[in-house]
Amino acid sequence: MIDVISIYKTFYVPHEVKALVDVSNKIKAGEVVVVIGPSGSGKSTFLRCLNRLETAERGQILVDGVDIFDPKTNINTVRAEMGMVFQSFNLYPHLTVQGNVNLAQKLVRKRPKKEREEKTRMLLEKVGISAKAKAWPSNLSGGQQQRVAIARALAMDPKIMLFDEPTSALDPEMIGEVLEVMKTLAKEGMTMVCVTHEMGFAREVADRVIFMDEGMIVEEGTPEKFYKNPTHDRTKLFLKQIL
Amino acid sequence: MEQNISNIKRLSNPFAYFLSVGGFLVLLFMVIGSVYYATVAVDYQWRWFKVPKYFMYKSSVTLYAEGFGEIDTIAANKDKYDITVTTDAGKRTYTVPEGTFDWTEGDMVGPGDIIASYEGGWQPGILAKGLWVTLKISFIATFFGILLGIIGGVARVSNTPVLKWSAMAYVEVIRGSPLLVQIMIFYFVLGTTMNKILMMNGIPRLNAEWYGIMALSVFTGAYVVEIVRAGIEAIHPGQVEAARSSGMTYFQCMFHIVLPQALKTILPPLAGQFINLIKDSSLLGMISIRELTKATREGITTSLQTFELWILCAILYLLMTFTLSMCVQYLERRTATK
Ligand SMILES: Nc1ncnc2c1ncn2[C@@H]1O[C@H](COP(=O)(O)OP(=O)(O)O)[C@@H](O)[C@H]1O
Ligand SMILES: [Mg+2]
Fold it and tell me: pLDDT digits over B60-77, tens only?
C-alpha cells in the first residue's frame, strides 16, 4: 500500500541536520505500524513525508502505486486518502466541533450537506463526543480535542491513518480514551502508521514496530520479538530509557 | 490589561471619580476658554448662527426672460401657474408658484426682466455635499483597499517567487513616496493618458473622483498587504498542516482556515488604516475634487467665517473616524467571544 524506497531528507536551516538517511519500508494494507525512537530521530519527518508535508530530496514514495513526489501527481487527491492526527491536535479554533469535522468533507469530498452531517454525527458518536458537537474546541479537554481530530481525519474515509505522537501532549488520565479510539480503528482493519511510545498499544494492536535513530531505521519486528529480544544495542538502550 | 484594572479600581472610589472627571472638564474648559479669549482679543466675530446654511439652505429661484416678446398665456396648473412666454429667443413655459409673479396675459417683456422670483426647496449646502463626497470616496477606496490588500497579502506569503516579489515591490514602491505625489501621478499622468485612450475609443472619460479613488485604494492597499501578511504569519503552522493534510488546496486552506483566523489580529490595525484613509482623502482637493476640506475652503472664500468652518470641518472628520473606530471595537468584541 505504501512503498518507501530509499528516501533522504536534510534540513539546512537553522543548521544542517540529516533527518532521514536511506529510509526504506513497505507498509501493507491493513497493517498497523508503530514507530518509536528518541526525540529528533526523524520519526515525524518520516511520517510527514508519507503525505508530502515534507518532500524527500532523494528516493521515492509510492502510495497505491502513485509516486507522490512526482510533480504531475495531484497531491490533494492522495492526501484525501490519508488522515493525519497531530501531537498538538490542530483543531480549527474558529469552527465548532462539527464544523471542524464537516469542512473538508464539504470542500474536498464535495459531499451534500445532509450526507456530511450524517457522517459527522456518526463519527462523533464513534469517538464518544456527540454531546459536544456544537462546542468550540477551546472549551474541550485535550483528550476530547484529540478525539475530534481523529473524527475529522476519519471523515474523509481515508485508507491510511497517520498518527504523530497523538497522546504526548495529553495529561495521563486522558491518554486512555484516545488510545481506545485508536485501538478500535486498528481492530476494524485500518492501515495505520503511529509514532507513539505507548507500549501497551503497540503490544495489543501493532503488527510491526520500527525503531528509528539518527534518521535511520535501526531495527524492526513484531512487537513480541521487538520488546522481548531487541538485537541492537541502541534499541536496548532506548527501551531501557522509556520503560 | 493590568493598567486597566488598577484604573477601574481607583475610580470605584466616588471621590476619586469626581475628582478625575472634574479635573478633566476643568482642563477642557481652560483650553477652549483660552482659545476663545484669544480670538476675542483679535476681534474675531463669531457667527455660528450662519453655519447651518452650509449644510442645508432654502434655495431662491429667479427666472429671467430671454429676449423681447410677450406673455402668451397664464394658466393654472394644480396649485401652480404655467406662464408661457414667446420671445425672439423662442417659446418657453415656466411653472411657478402662485403670488410670485406680477404679469397678465399680453404684457410685453424684455431681456433680463424677472418673470418670477420665489423660494425653492431645501438644498444641501456645500459642506454637506463635501461630506458626502468624502464618505463616498472613503467607502469605495476602503473596499478596493481591502481587496488589493488581501490579494497582495496572500501573494506576499506565497512560495511563488513572481507573486511574492510583485507584492513586495508594490508595497515598497507605494510606501516609499508621499501620497500627495501619488495622487498627482494618478491624476495628471495616468489620468491624462487613460482619458486620451478612452476618448480615442469613443468611451467617455473618467472624472477626477475616480482617479482620486484609485490613488487612495492603491495607497491604502499597500499598507493592508503588510497588515494581512502579519496576520497570516501569526497563524500557527499546524493549522495549515491540518488543512492541507486533509486534501484542501492552498486557496481553500487560505480562505477557510487562515484568513478567518487572521481577521482577529488584522482588525485593529486595519481600522487604523481606514481612519487614515478618511483623513488622507482631504488631499484630493488638490486635484479639484470637492471633498470636505476643499468644500470648507470654498465656503470660507465666500463667507470669511474662517474659524467656524475650519473647526467644523475638523469636527466632521472626527465624527467619521470616531464612528468607524466604534464600529470596529464592536466587531472586535464580537469576534473575541469565540
Ligand atoms: N522544519 C524543520 N526545519 C529544520 N529542522 C527540522 C525541521 N523539522 C525537523 N527538523 C530536524 O530534523 C530532525 C528530525 O526531526 P523530527 O523528524 O521532528 O524528529 P522526531 O519526530 O523523531 O522527534 C531533528 O533534528 C529536527 O531538529
Ligand atoms: Mg516528532
Answer: 888 888 888 888 888 888
- Order across the sheet with A58-63: list the strands: A17-27, A2-11, A58-63, A66-67
Instruction: Report d(CA B81, CA B74) in Å as an integer.
Output: 7
- CB of A201 closer than 8 Å to CB of A178: no
- Determine the Cα angle at B281 with ends B277 and B283, to 5°: 130
Q: Whose CA is nearest to atom 20 of ligand 1?
A: A40
Q: Provide the ipTM.
A: 0.94
Partner B contacted by A53 (CB < 8 A): yes
A108 touching B, CB under 8 A?
A: yes
Q: Which residues pair with B57 in a beta bridge?
A: B123
Closest partner residue to A107 (CB to CB) among B241, B245, B252 is: B252
Kindly tell me if the per-residue pLDDT of B5 is higher than 60: no
Choose which residue among A7, A8, A11 to substitute to test ligand 1 binding: the one with the highest number of ligand atoms within 8 A of its C-beta: A11
Ligand 1 closest atom vs CA A37? 22
Contact: B247, A77; criterion CB under 8 Å: yes
What confidence score (pLDDT) does residue A119 get?
Answer: 96
Question: What 3 state SS string does chain A have?
Answer: CEEEEEEEEEECCCCCEEEEEEEEEEECCCCEEEEECCCCCCHHHHHHHHCCCCCCCEEEEEECCEECCCCCCCHHHHHHCEEEECCCCCCCCCCCHHHHHHHHHHHCCCCCHHHHHHHHHHHHHHCCCHHHCCCCHHHCCHHHHHHHHHHHHHCCCCCEEEEECCCCCCCHHHHHHHHHHHHHHHHCCCEEEEECCCHHHHHHHCCEEEEEECCEEEEEECHHHHHHCCCCHHHHHHHHHHC
Tens-place pLDDT, residues B258-303: 999 998 889 889 999 999 999 999 999 999 999 999 999 999 998 8
Any chain B CB within 8 A of the CB of A163? no
Angstroms from A237 CA to nearest CA on chain B: 32
